[in-house]
């Protein structure tokens, strides 16, 4: 059993803080997608996690609110997906678990998995931009879970805007680079 | 944008550590369910979060590995559901994001929401015991998300055992007590 002060802690790698020290506004959907894909690429290059990046922007202004990368292996926590990290850091920055009043947009380098769709639902983020498709992620071996047949419709029915396939090829290239370099595919039970 | 050391931190309330200072084995499914429901009830009584508790046990021995409660409002993070907290603390205790080799069982005071089903999928936990049903949680106003039509079948297809309705009435009583006492229903956009 955990000791007398059990806590969960997820820290961004230092290189992310350095990258974010001079954040630019990202005014277009493509710029926001490229920012998330760039985080994914850097996460692979630095060996700090899986090939996934995400960032939260003010939808109207494009101002960066928070960024995240996949930290499952470095944190030892299977919930530390890029979207969960970015949304959580946005909530921390804004001081509330409900982002709905801020009209924010999440850019993610790959379509959200089963868990992250639910995390998006609870977060209050109002718009999602996705780059690689679910099938692109499964193609390198990740088990994305039992997602709704049409996840875009499922989010839209809940008032969340969705834009897919933005800079998809660039995002696929990052996934393939991770797989080709022997990056760990950390599905549950993979080591059994 | 976050400062130079962005991090996500979730801490259990002090009363949980006190409760866990003398953990007993819970050998039966009903004992494990009651432990999770007791955490939910104490979370309401202490005013430290929503009416949800969860705990992770070794399936064979019943030894407690980790416990969690809903900490959405106290942590300011919408991902801080009891299941995510308990599974994350189990991963921290065991030093790995993949619980599959340990043959663990998650007891949760209410059926997992959309996000937590995905979190269970990624965690490697091999068995789930649920007390209150999805409809019981929705009845007090929580929007549990777009879950599969039969979530038990969806988990079982993935090799995860599921036992439902264990001590359901006791879990419903905690949900109703929370709602009756004016507990916040923290759906995204609820404050809009």
Keyword list:
homodimer; about 190 residues; alpha/beta; Cytidine Deaminase, domain 2; about 40% helix; globular
Tally of distinct domains of chain A: 1
Overall shape of chain A: globular
**Class of chain A in CATH?**
Alpha Beta
Share of residues in helices of chain A:
40-55%
Description:
The structure is a homodimer of 192-residue chains. Helix content of chain A is 41%, strand content 17%. Chain A is an alpha/beta fold. The first copy, chain A, has a single domain, classed as Cytidine Deaminase, domain 2 (3-Layer(aba) Sandwich). A five-stranded mixed β-sheet of chain A has the order 3-2-4-5-6, with helices on both faces. In chain A, helix 2 (29-46) packs parallel to helix 8 (168-180) and helix 4 packs parallel to helix 5. The longest helix of chain A has 18 residues, at 29-46. The first copy, chain A, is globular, with a radius of gyration of 16 Å. The relative contact order of chain A is 0.16. Chains A and B meet through strand 1, helix 1, strand 3, helix 3 and helix 4 of A and strand 1, helix 1, strand 3, helix 3 and helix 4 of B. Strand 1 of chain A pairs antiparallel with strand 1 (7-11) of chain B, so a sheet runs across the interface.
Write the layout of secondary structure elements.
Two copies of one chain form a homodimer.
Chain A: E1 7-11, H1 14-20, H2 29-46, E2 53-58, E3 64-69, H3 72-75, H4 82-94, E4 104-110, H5 114-123, E5 127-132, H6 134-139, H7 151-157, E6 161-163, H8 168-180
Parallel strand pairs in A: 4-5, 5-6
Antiparallel strand pairs in A: 2-3, 2-4
Helix pairs in contact in A: 2-8, 4-5
């Amino acid at each position: 059993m955990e000791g007398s002060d059990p806590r969960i802690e997820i820290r961004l790698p230092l290189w992310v803080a350095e990258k974010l020290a001079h954040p630019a506004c990202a005014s277009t959907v493509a710029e926001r997608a490229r920012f998330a894909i760039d985080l994914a690429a850097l996460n692979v290059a630095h060996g700090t996690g899986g090939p996934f990046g995400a960032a939260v922007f003010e939808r109207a202004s494009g101002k960066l609110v928070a960024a995240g990368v996949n930290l499952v292996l470095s944190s030892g926590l299977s919930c530390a997906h890029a979207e969960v990290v970015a949304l959580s850091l946005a909530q921390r920055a804004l001081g509330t678990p409900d982002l709905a009043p801020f009209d924010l947009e999440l850019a993610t380098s790959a379509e959200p998995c089963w868990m992250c769709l639910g995390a998006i639902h609870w977060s209050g983020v109002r718009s999602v931009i996705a780059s690689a498709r679910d099938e692109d992620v499964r193609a390198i071996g990740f088990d994305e879970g039992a997602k709704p047949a049409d996840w875009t419709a499922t989010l839209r029915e809940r008032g969340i805007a969705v834009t897919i396939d933005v800079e998809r090829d660039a995002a696929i290239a990052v996934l393939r680079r991770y797989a080709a370099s022997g990056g760990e595919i950390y599905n549950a039970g993979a080591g059994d």
